[in-house]
Amino acid sequence: MLLTLIVLLPFLGSVCAALLPANARNAESWLSGVVTVACMALVASLYPQVADGEVVRAIIPWLPQYGLTFYLRMDGYAWLFAMLVSLMGALVVLYARYYMSPEDPVPRFFSFLLAFMGAMLGIVLSGNLIQLVVFWELTSLTSFMLIAYWYHRPDARRGARMAMTVTVAGGLCLLLGALMLGEIVGSYDLDEVLAAGNGIREHPWYTPVLVLVLLGALTKSAQFPFHFWLPHAMAAPTPVSAYLHSAAMVKAGVFLLARLWPVLAGTDEWFWIVCSAGASTLLLGAFCATFQRDMKGVLAYSTISHLGLITLLLGMNTPLALVAAVFHMMNHATFKASLFMATGIVDHETGTRDLKKLCGLRYRMPVTATVAIVAASAMAGVPLLNGFLSKEMFFEESIIAGSESGLRFTLPAVATLAGVFSVAYSVRFIHQVFFGPPAEDLPRRPQEPTRGMIVPSALLVAACLLVGILPSRTVGPLLETSMRSILGPDLPAYRLAVWHGFTVPFYMSLVALTGGVALYVLLCFRKKTMVPTPLLSRLDAKRAFDVINVAIVRGAGRLARFLFSRRLQTQLLLIVLLALGVAVLPFLVTEWTRGDMPLTPPDPLFALLWIVGAACAIGAALQAKFHRLAALIMLGGAGLVTCLTFAWFSAPDLALTQIAVEVVTIVLFLLGLRWLPRRLAFDTVDRQTLRARARRTRDAIIAVTSGIGIAALSFAALTRPRQSRLAAFFFDRSVEEAGGRNVVNVILVDFRGFDTLGEITVVGIVALIVYALLRRFRPAPESIGVPRAQRDDVLQGALPERLDDPLPRGYMKIPAVLLALALPLVRVCLFCLLLPGPR
Amino acid sequence: MSGLLHHLPVMPIVVPLLAGALMLFLSEARRAARATIALTSMVVQLAVGGALLYLASDAAPHVWSEGIGVYRIGNWPSPFGIVLVVDRLSALMVTLGASLGFCVLVYTIARWDRPGQPFHSLLQFLMMGLNGAFLTGDLFNLFVFFEVLLAASYGLVLRGTGATRVKEGLHYIVVNLVASFMFLIGVSMVYGIAGTLNMAELTGRVAALSPADRALFDVGGAILGIAFLVKAGSWPLNLWLPGTYSVALAPIAASFAMLTKVGVYAVLRVGTLMSHDQAAASLLGPALFYIGLATLVAGTIGMLSALHLARLVSHSLIVSTGIMLAALGLGIESLTPPVLFYLIVSVLTSGAFFLLTGMTERTRARDSAIATAMHDEPRETPALPYYVAFGVREPDPYGTDEEVGVAIPAAMAFLGLMFVCCVLLVTGLPPLPGFVAKFTLLSTAIGEAAAAGMTKPVWVLTAAVLATGLAGAIALTRIGMSLFWTVTERTTPRLHVLEAAPVALLVLVCLTLGAAAGPVMGYLESTARSLHDPQTYIRTVLAAEAQLAEAHGASP
User: Fold this and answer.
1) Nearest beta carbon to residue B174 from set A173, A353, A568
2) Residue B556 located in a structural domain
3) Measured between CB atoms, which of B17, B305, B405 is closest to A105?
4) Do the interacting molecules here have an ipTM over 0.85?
5) Which residues pair with residue A128 across a beta bridge?
6) How many domains in chain B?
7) pTM for this predicted structure
8) Which residues 147-166 in chain B show a CB within 8 A of chain A?
9) N or C: which terminal CB in chain B sees fewer CB atoms within 10 Å?
10) Which of A25, A66, A774 is best to mutate for the B interface (most B CBs within 10 A)?
């Protein structure tokens, strides 16, 4: 229950925050503060249980048939992260209260911040893989909203889109991975998954699952080659960067890797993929961070680099490396968030983050400078700070893992090199901003910020110091609990201590520290501190992203125009072709046979009739485009032949109906003719080009084939003996039960009267539409001229020149009078017909 | 069975027919009266749908044994007369249609029914056609109701002004007339060979056909399938769809979200009845998978290419058809419940989304710069990168964060929230039920793949479903940003509560379905069971006939 509340509370707070008025900065902060602190307290209250090695659970069934339950589960590792998330949340809320401008519409900000916190807590506490993916995507979504908080800035919009595209894509990969993992294990339940390590590693799906899960984790944690989104996500307000993009969200990827470490790790695939991604990210991030001009840029690349370090540790396949990784996750969160906050303070007070402009701030902002210097030292790995401890462990593990995997010198060298760069960018960050002569041309006169901004940062720095000096007293038990929940009761022997003696890692640290300072001095000396990143500055993710986006739109547009032709002819051709295809297909397997019924002897007169009809039909099709009147007349001819056919085979009622239909159709067509565009001459336009000729030939072939096909089908169907017992039934019952002698009529109005009702409705609807269209489509007289087809009539004087001129007297008078006379009579007749019904 | 209960199955057809006809007699000025009639009819349909759902779920076995209700029109015995059959699937579809119809109706009352054409009547006739198509147990009657709904949709699609609308509307009419023609050919072939139009009787007849007859019958079935696929909007038979749906007025496009599902319903219903026996699957058979896949891919490309929200939503409708057809085409029976869940979510979501487009379009009424830059004409693809075109300079990259955001008025906030919900639902991203649908679909498919060894089509489908979700997210983000976050001046739309409420309602229904996914899935599972084992359906439909035939034989 408590667990559910921990996840639910931020979401409820988010809804409340969204409903507050736009300028309620204090109310928002209080609300968020209360929510975050409450979450923190709830998490803290569960520590005794967790410390006993117990797993706290909360299960709500949701979709049990598919193995989807709402399952929250807190063990030591989850507790550690839940604490981190809620603690950071509380600090960031405090910081944001003073950071955000009073005019900013903060409800949106706090609402999404709380929602993010809820989602992040959901990730860490998920006991179900699918549920984890759900929260995972939610963090991507809220991060999108938070990065784009100042959505009027193009860089914020782009950064948000980039981050979302990358992380959502990764999330979908993770979903597939989770689905497959669940299929291997037979359950999405984390407990069962964690228990099935060997089964998973030996399953043929292991490699695809591993790749998919890694895709999800590495995109989220901004690992090479997916690291490019993180620097652009820095367009977000600084509290967001401090929270999402250093402390919490980007940790989700490495969190997951550590969570699934017992099941997925331990294989060569894991080692090579994870280590290479981690190592390259570590170096690349550290290298880029050294050359950034934006304070946040330095921190962003340094975050990437540190995440790379964690990934590399996770990839090393030893339990000790895992301990180091988890330890470094915590340490990095503390010092990096505090550095982000300091950056925000500098930005807030001076109006710029440009390292080129900033200088000598320690005179005006001594407290901020102190805090930032300590935090940056932790980042650089200076002894007596928490960063030193985990870095030391990292160096040690790199030696061990290097000797085990045959990368004896490579791994330690990579680690030391990254350490050198890390020291260099830390020194540069501090030296450029806080030392040197006081800057004069800053947008604003710098001064110490309000206490509310400095306190969160200072608290984090105090934590860095505490952990750095007294590791085994402070973080020791927490780390042990959390490691026990991942690795089980028998933990590897490790010692959290400041001093391990003169070991190789210590020398590596020394090399990194001196090398880093030397590198910075060298860069300063050669005036290379403000150059764009060597070698890599031409790779511009921003531009590439824009180009790819436009390329996608354009390419898809081109394809879509091809796939979704707007021409009616193409569509009709496709329908006919497909129908033809499916009609021919069965006869490739089975032979076409005609039925057994004897054929009636051919009658020359009837044959002649049909030849005329067929000629009419072909003529109509041929002339439809060029001489509409002729085509219509021939269409009428073909229709007439149909009527005669009905009459010939003694179905006079059908023939009568058909005549009525034919007449009405032709009359309507004739009425519509004058509105159609000018006709084409048969010989001039179309016949000359080869293409047109080919098209017409193709159409003719298709038409003939379809016609023959339909004829063959009906012939085959009609020559088969009647299977149906329907006819017999209708004949039997129509007189006795339906009371009608004309069976066809009885079928229409009784046996299948429902069909008739439907068809009458159709006719009624169509009449309604035609009426509405005629009323509406009558164009304003002044807006259009006389249609071309009518011009001849106008020229001959039969019609007035303009449409709104009165018609000549007596125009169509006789039909009008006749109709007026006939309509009442027709009505009476119809009524008389209606009364007796089918009889 | 009491009288009213007995006549329940025919109510969803009769009520809208009467309501639609009645409204024709009211003069144009009496908007309130017409709206009342229309609303009453819709509410009745919704209630009847709910009642049918209740009865069909076997909750009241004394009314309908085995949850299948048979209603004989004119009391003629079964293969001879026309029957309406209510089972779980049809009850579900009727309720779904009525829900969407209700929301669309409320939305239109706000202001869309002004121009005084028989809009309300046509909407009612559309409902009649839909309900009839879902309820009928007779193949030719299905054709008739297709005609009814198509005829009404012709009128609806031609509403509004503009040359494009008329052009696309006429394309729609022509294509659908051709499809109806195919339908007619198919029905006559089926009748000519099998000698019956009753869907329940058809099953037995098909099994008894000789191979030569069977081939002819398959041709009929396949041509029928083509007609259904045109309706369902599967590529390449759907070239008309994006154009027509995106130019139709928003509420009309929303009501059309149901039309494509009629095609899917028909494929499902007729397909399972015709080919449940182990004889060669008729009605397109395994080709369905490839058709669905092609539809999915084409729709995805369309989504990526779309520059207008309405067009994008139309393409997403195509994608949903593609997913459903491809999943059904795999021939895995356990995939049917997820497909049905997906269908429900898809209908409600596309409906809400189309309704939303009607409101968002108003925000850009004065936004001519963007309107032209984003206009859906091929030539005017936006210049690289967007903001350059709009005269906004890239800010100083090392500049300050000292920014003040832009407050969002409540109307925009509402639209934005609904937009985000719709995006999540359409793309199937967590945590909304669109995800539940996709998750159940994929997990079932992967489970089958694992059971049967690695089967390629399942993986292809899985990859395609996930990729289309991503593509949809990318495309919708792009459009959403240009809609809600453009810097140029924008008018805050005035929203009528009658317009806003239906969208919110549809989204809420979706959320409820997601929260109650367990029971909903339970219902859908029994639906799928009865679909794939139609013996109960057949027995119930024909048993009632046999009894009645005896009674008839004895009575005179």
Assistant:
1) A568
2) no
3) B405
4) yes
5) A189
6) 1
7) 0.89
8) 147-148, 151-152, 154-155, 158
9) C
10) A66
